Amino acid sequence: MPRILSLIASSTEIVCALGFGGQLVGRSHECDFPTSVQSLPFCTEPKFNVDGTSAEIDQRVKSILQEALSVYRIDEIKLKELKPDIIITQSQCEVCAVSMSDVNKAVNGLMGSKLQIVSLEPNQLTDLWNDINLVSEALKVPNEGKKLVRELKQRIKNIEDEARKIVKKPTVACIEWIDPLMAAGNWMPELVELGGGINLFGESGKHSPWMNWDNLKESDPDIILILPCGYNIERTKSEMTPLIEKLDWFQLKAVKNRQVYITDGNQYFNRPGPRLVESLEIIAEILHPIYFNFGHENIGWELLDTKL
Question: FRET pair for 27, CA 20 to 30 Å: which of 84, 198, 279, 293?
Answer without folding.
Answer: 279
